[in-house]
Q: What sequence folds into this?
């Protein structure tokens, strides 16, 4: 084996200098990646504009085919350029954009921001060698300038329209680039029988200046992105709207027309396709937190509000369109209550609360018609996030009772506790059922988070598993998030998508 290794090394060292890719402008090499039917090319004119012609079937799936003009860098980096196609093109899915790539194999881990022939702009990424490609679609239109941003373990992107001002497009994902990586400009024809050409003007590679954030928890200033994600197989993410401040906890209305979220104590609604948010009237309740949700018939909204002088969260119900007089339905004079679930028949709510006679947060239920609340969980350790199964037989919740934060379930009357997730490497919170009852989505924190905490601004995952436990949880997506990401039920009525919030530190 050693002899063969020396032969390979000798051949590599003997390769003639002429075989090395030629430098183009500020980039070290211009090469075709993967299998391309037509050879690409790259040149730079006297004004500094790069013109790249590329073939290849696509930048997607588990292997790519495109023309790449790149150089080697390491650490944090922003790359930006004015990007435009030349000619009408053959395929509306042709791509031109900016890319960071671990290596030059077709299946390399990568992240890019791509302008498509039909105007779509998206952040694409492959997390592992030869793995699948994922996507975060922006809501930007008329893009003229793009920027791909690597900051620590995460990649972000920005887009400029006709005014030329780059604005954060929202969404993020961690990519573990190891050591030096390739960065540059890429073009793929999306049809291996042809080539497509794009120009890249005013190209800039910069190391960003990032202010130190001493406390990335609740005091940290953040930007927020409201996103929806397909969970039926494509598992692509789409930006609904990017916000300069903090928003939390989207609900999807039963008719599919709105997403409802909270921000700075108020509730807002916005169409899932994007647009301008509208405030929802909640009367004197103006310190709403991120524990709110919609009745099964879609007519009512439950809120958890802390407007009273003692700052304890209490639960109110109001019409879905808003009201100046929400009705108090659950609360206590000296301890907080946080709504999380609604029984399928609409008659009962489930919530987490602590009471003077207990030291833990437990699961409670109360009939909206009146009567005393019922304590359903009594085991030592925090219980939170109760949600009824669609058949009404069980309440699922997250619990620390085993010494690891996991998903559990009990009967609707509190009987027969049963553990659902069992991976000690993750702290699982907030189980949410698909409308047909077949799937559960939840958020998973790492062991860097305290057992009973679900803080903001952490590396988290959204995971999904069959409700019947027939398969282990699998990762839907990784993101920078946590508290506020998916605290409440957020499935679309057709069961094909979920809504959530990702975050970015203001630095």
A:
């Amino acid at each position: 084996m050693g002899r063969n290794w020396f032969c390979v090394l000798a051949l590599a060292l003997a390769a003639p200098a002429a075989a090395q890719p030629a430098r183009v402008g500020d980039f070290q090499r211009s090469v075709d990646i993967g299998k391309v039917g037509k050879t690409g090319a790259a040149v730079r004119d006297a004004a500094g504009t790069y013109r790249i012609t590329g073939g290849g079937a696509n930048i997607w799936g588990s292997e790519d085919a495109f023309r790449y003009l790149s150089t080697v860098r390491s650490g944090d980096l922003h790359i930006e350029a004015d990007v435009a196609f030349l000619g009408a093109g053959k395929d509306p899915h042709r791509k031109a954009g900016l890319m960071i790539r671990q290596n030059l194999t077709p299946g390399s881990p990568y992240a890019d921001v791509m302008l498509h022939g039909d105007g779509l702009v998206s952040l694409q990424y492959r997390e592992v060698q030869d793995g699948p490609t994922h996507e975060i679609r922006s809501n930007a239109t008329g893009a003229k300038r793009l920027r791909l941003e690597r900051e620590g373990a995460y990649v972000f992107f920005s887009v400029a329209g006709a005014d030329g001002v780059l604005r954060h497009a929202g969404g993020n994902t961690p990519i573990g680039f190891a050591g030096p990586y390739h960065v540059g400009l890429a073009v793929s024809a999306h049809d291996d029988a042809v080539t497509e050409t794009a120009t890249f003007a005013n190209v800039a590679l910069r190391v960003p200046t990032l202010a130190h954030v001493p406390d990335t928890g609740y005091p940290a200033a953040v930007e927020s992105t409201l996103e929806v994600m397909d969970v039926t197989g494509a598992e692509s993410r789409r930006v609904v709207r990017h916000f300069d401040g903090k928003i939390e906890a989207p609900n999807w209305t039963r008719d599919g027309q709105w997403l409802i979220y909270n921000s700075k104590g108020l509730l807002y609604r916005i169409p899932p396709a994007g647009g301008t948010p509208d405030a929802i009237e909640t009367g004197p309740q103006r310190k709403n937190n991120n524990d709110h949700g919609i009745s099964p018939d879609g007519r009512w909204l439950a809120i958890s509000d802390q407007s009273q002088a003692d700052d304890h969260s209490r639960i109110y119900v109001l019409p879905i369109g808003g009201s100046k007089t929400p009705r108090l339905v659950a609360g206590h004079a000296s301890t907080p209550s946080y709504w999380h679930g609604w029984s399928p028949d609409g008659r009962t709510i489930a919530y987490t609360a602590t009471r003077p006679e207990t030291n833990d947060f437990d699961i409670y239920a109360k009939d909206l018609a009146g009567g005393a609340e019922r304590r359903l969980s009594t085991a030592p350790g925090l219980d939170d996030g109760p949600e009824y199964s669609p058949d009404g037989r069980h309440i699922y919740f997250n619990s620390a009772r085993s010494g690891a934060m996991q998903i559990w379930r009990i009967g609707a009357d509190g009987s027969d506790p049963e553990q659902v997730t069992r991976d000690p490497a993750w702290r699982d919170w907030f189980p949410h059922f698909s409308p047909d009852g077949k799937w559960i989505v939840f958020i998973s924190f790492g062991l860097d988070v305290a057992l009973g905490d679900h803080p903001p601004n952490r590396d988290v995952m959204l995971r999904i598993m069959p409700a019947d436990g027939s398969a282990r949880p699998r990762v839907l997506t990784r993101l920078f998030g946590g508290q506020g990401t998916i605290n409440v039920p957020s499935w679309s009525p057709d069961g094909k998508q979920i809504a959530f919030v990702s975050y970015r530190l203001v630095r």
Summary: The first strand starts at residue 29 and ends at 33.
